[in-house]
Amino acid sequence: MTTRRNFIGQSVGLTVASLGSLPSTTLLAAPPVSDVMTLTLTASPSAIQVGPDGTQPTQLWCFNGQFPGPEIRLRQGDRLRVRFVNQLPQPSSIHWHGIRLPNHMDGVPGLTQDPVPPGGEFIYEFDCPDAGTFWYHPHFNSAEQLGRGLIGALVVEEQTPPALDHDLTWVLSDMRIDPQGRLNESFSNRHDQAHAGRIGNVVLINGSITDRFMLPGPSRIRLRLIAATNARLFELKFKGTKDSSVQLIAIDGHPITPKPVTEAIGLAPGQRVDLLIDLDASGSLLIEDHAYPRNVYKLAEITGVGTQQSHSKAFKTTNLQLADNPVPPVARAALRQARSVPLVITGGAMSRATRADGIWQINGHAMTDHRREDLHHMKPNFKLKVGEVVQLQLDNQTAWFHPMHLHGVVFQQVMADQSLGPYRDTILLSPGQKMTLAMRADSPGLWMIHCHVLEHQHSGLMGYFSVES
Ligand SMILES: [Cu+2]
């Protein structure tokens, strides 16, 4: 079994995180009651150690000098006000992935705002209507800007957060570095664009290769996983000691009926899951990633240490059903009458559809940049009225995986029996897969639809839809 302590594929030992250095641990601390959370996020270059022992600090781009950027935590219904300062050598922006917000706050240069130039600033201000696990990142030259480290967690807590021992966030990312710790700067090269994207050789949890976490047991843990990689997929298997259990409680921020995790959980770039882990006093939970069968590795091990009077014992048999978010439901009748919109994905290696203007296409069109001049001659992929329900017929005619992300909305997969799957904002299409999504347009504006493999996005796999009031 490979671990992450060294470059993936090499054998290694263990790093132990003492309890004091656990990343992003909140011990039942309620956030201060506030209606508006105000902060500044400054994007700038920083050198941070991300590689194994013996490597040099890696030259990254960071929010507030941190990698990942600071975790933003606020309460459902609260307003977030962020002063974004761009100290990068190129334009940038911030997109608030999964947050249902007004279009002009969505952070997409050329579509919802002008790019924020080097030395420039922009104020983002919006309410957070949904509780859940979200994240933020630039939406300009994304393959490079996220690949250099500009990612961060955005956690919206429930009005009455459930009683837990620990509420942990793990921002999962990867980096492509050399044995000295230098970042490979061949961002969005043609090979990565046409194949599976930029997959790194170190996998990081909250920016660290630490793979062992000790928690006082027994304990009940909410673990928020955010796939913030450029391209790497995860297929996580959980192996717990007999009195430990893992339940899936939310997908892309939105609650589901809790269900025991009995098989691998897939997590593609952009996606999130919330897990409820009951950890025995001296139990342990091993998390392995099986996404790439030739490179199975240990992502992490969580171990219970000592004995504490935990909430866990009492809560162990209780379910944790989180309250639904205020998403307007898709009515059955509306869905039956809904228009079908085809979204055919073509291109990539092993395809004859690869062309000079872009490697990938949606309905035959490649959108490769966020420049306004590019958008002038690009029509929206489809147009909706506010409140309109639509069936999106996705058809992946390529040999590659594509996690498709829609801005400004959540959607549900229409299953074979016509039932609707969980709310999501990003869904993974397998090679050759067809899929129907039900979606209701709620907010006017121009909204992106794109692959969250950022090298695919950069080489054509994006478009947009308009919602008119
Ligand atoms: Cu893709």
Account of the protein in words:
By secondary structure, the chain is mostly beta strands. The protein has two domains: 2-315, Immunoglobulin-like; 332-468, Cupredoxins -  blue copper proteins (Immunoglobulin-like), CATH 2.60.40.420. Helices cover 7% and strands 40% of the residues. The chain is built from six helices and 31 strands. Strands 2, 11, 12, 14, 16, 17 and 19 form a seven-stranded mixed sheet that branches. Strands 1, 13, 15, 18, 20 and 21 form a six-stranded mixed sheet that branches. A five-stranded mixed sheet has the order 23-22-25-29-27. The longest helix has 6 residues, at 142-147. Mean pLDDT is 89; it is low at 9-29. The structure holds copper (II) ion (CU). Copper (II) ion (CU) binds next to loops. Residues 402, 451, 453, 456, 461 line the site of copper (II) ion.
**First-residue to last-residue Cα separation:** 55 Å
**Overall strand count:** 31
Report the structural category. Answer: mainly beta
Which value, in Å, is the CA radius of gyration? 21 Å
Ligand catalogue:
copper (II) ion
Provide the β-strand percentage band. 35-45%
Major sheet: size, sense and barrel closure? Answer: 7 strands, mixed
Counted up, domains total: 2
| Oligomeric status | single chain
- Using the 3D structure, state the CATH architecture of the largest domain: Sandwich
Key features of this structure:
single chain; 469 residues; mainly beta; Immunoglobulin-like; 2 domains; seven-stranded mixed sheet; six-stranded mixed sheet; 6 helices; 31 strands; 7% helix; 40% strand; binds copper (II) ion
